[in-house]
Amino acid sequence: MAPLRTRRALWPALIMVIYLLTAVSYALATPPGEAYDEWAHFAYIRHIVTERRLPASGQRLVPEVTWDETHQPPLYYLLGAAATAGIDMSDNLRPQINPHLPDGYARNAYIRGPEHRWPWRGSVLGMMVARGVSLAMGALTVWLTYRLAQRLAPARPEVSLGAMAIAALMPQFLFTSSIITNDIAVALFGTLAALLLVRLAQAPTLRDVLWLIPVLLAAILSKVTGVALLPAAALVLAGVTIDRGNGLSRRQRLWLAGGGLLTLGVAVLALLAFESWNVYLSDHHASVSVALRRFILPALLGAGRGGLWRWAELPERLLYAYRTFWGSFGLGNIELPYGYYVAMGLLTLLAPLGVVLHWRRATRQARLGLAVLALVAAWTLAAPLYMMLTSSSDHAAPGRYVMALVPILGVGQALGLAELAPRARRAALLIPCALLLLVGATLIPWRVLWPVYAPGERLSQAQLERVATPIDYRFGDTLALVGYRLPQATVHPGDTVEVLLYWQVLATPPHDYTVSVQLLDPDRAFYGGVEAYPARGNEGTHHWRPGEIIVDRQYVPLGSDFAAPAYALVQVSLHRDESREPLPLTAAAGETGDDAAIFGRLRVVLPETRHAPLRGPRLALYGDAVALVEASASGAAAGGEAVVDTHWRAVAPIAHDYTLFVHLLGPDGALLSQADGQPLGGRYPMTDWLRGQTVRDHRTLPLPPELPAGDYTATIGLYRLDTLERLPGVDAAGRPLPEAELRLPLKVAAP
After folding, report:
1. How many domains, in total, are found in the chain?
2. What's the pLDDT at 309?
3. Does the bond joining 565 to the residue before it have cis omega, within 30 degrees of 0?
4. 131 to each of 36, 38, 167, 417, 741, how far by Cα in Å?
5. Which residues contact 165 (CB under 8 A, 6 or more apart)?
6. Domain shared by 485 and 417, yes or no
7. Is the peptide bond before 73 cis (omega within 30 degrees of 0)?
8. Which of 413, 448, 483 corresponds to the end of one domain?
9. Closest residue by Cα to residue 94 from 24, 40, 27, 35
10. Which domain holds residue 303?
11. What's the rounded Cα separation, in Å, for the pair 411 and 110?
12. Mind listing the pLDDT tens digit for each residue in 404-445?
């Protein structure tokens, strides 16, 4: 038996290790402070550590942000203060707001300096240690999920392991347990309360009733949303005392009733004490009274805030709550691909289905447990649902408010998977689902979060020479743009173009400068741009040190109306946010605009461009590289303009930017008119053409007014402008073209 028990214990241990490693990766990928309300939560903890007292309710601890958390119950923050008590946080680090956050391009809310880098010290170290408190609470929640599922399906280890794995690998739960927030405390104590209530329903004991006292107190003193557990607990306790099927004597029922009243009474007294304490500390009321005045009493009176029930807005708000429950990171401005939410929606539907299927053949005790879970879930959802119906804010009830539902949902989903899968093929269904959750959860920190918050990489001079195209543009006396790289050689209109800029610090900049990156067409017309701090908004330039070479990665949208095919140029400038005054620019060489550097060249083609070898007929082949696949010449009256349309295809890479000539010859071979120039007016040089790509060129030939009507010849060919040497060509049959030109008949009509 001992080896068997050991093997069974390995699976929960493995899931717990995976959870811990994954949660740590979320914490490392998300910089300190880059989560909803995290600065305010941390300021509460730091205040307790440095001032040795609770803050006054409503006291502003971080003026830089527009909210505070000092109205919150203190338990979570006291635990965080205990964990960070030995850390010197007297630096009083303040958040530096990213002014470009509202633009939607920069996703980071704050700018980080050298003090945020490893090794952590001071307040940054305190923030990371405080995150460890959340991580520990998350780990306990995962373990309690396992125990809860065991209680409901003791003979089915796949259900308990599945519920544990689902909770451990849920992205939003991992994120919530890796940041500073009291939402994870409510999840922990809510799960523990649910487990105690299930035990009470199945096998009531006075001991479990009394254990409810500290658990409910802990939930309420963590966040006001813990109050939702009180009605659920009251209903369960009432049901236990009147249930004739549990075999309790009258004396035992009286003891349970007394214990239940004691439990609920202590919880209510704790609420009153917390409220009184906050009134004593300040003139502000705490969350309990605010919730009573704004939500609970209006609900009992049958009217929402402002007397309006917002039923029409409920579907959209439910969708928002659903998305933010499964995955919403940062300040809620980083979401997962749409397909992930669809997949999780299908998994969510398994929960009620699994409960129904399990109910049909479950024992009485299991049914009682399922009923308790449903009751706890209903009361947990009641307050957010009311907020959705009555609040004027579209974001009144984000999914993080109901993190306590994660264990309950995990149990239901595990039951659904287990009930739907035939016993013989259960592993074939459960293992792929587990792997899918594992891959999704572990990839998010590095594929979703880290690219948003990644700082600019520091390079040596040798590394710079290996990866960048050298340029030399100096902005003021502080910064030099010494290189660039365009990873995408070919793009389409409407694409987002990655641009890597390499800055060398000449002297510490006195300000944080905004980088403006724009895309221009060959005529220097604007077709898309971004403005942000360097490294996609993550670097404040006043933190840079002389001698550093910093990689600045920007992503620039190219306008969908860009006239392709053509080439695009990159334009870069620096300016201060307040005045928008650009830094003066000096360039050792290269093109410049108004205090802006212009460099690089991107090939822009239409999406339908084919990169295939030449197939089909051709009229002529020039230099084994350029095929003339179609040509037409339309005459006109003397004094007008003849039109010559040609379609060219690149058969092989083209070595030179050839000039295309179209000449009008008389019957005697005399040159009467010509239209020479690069194809497409130079907007798309031939060296940029892709193999297999077809390019159309349109030319007009002015006809002299005195030109007699008759038959003439239009000639077409290519030559090098520097040497005037024509590119030799052959016709469709492979015969050399006389004078290296293709000849087309052209009629000139009488005026």
Report:
1. 3
2. 67
3. yes
4. 13, 10, 19, 33, 75
5. 15, 434, 437
6. no
7. no
8. 448
9. 40
10. 11-448
11. 38
12. 999 988 888 888 877 777 665 666 666 677 777 888 888 999
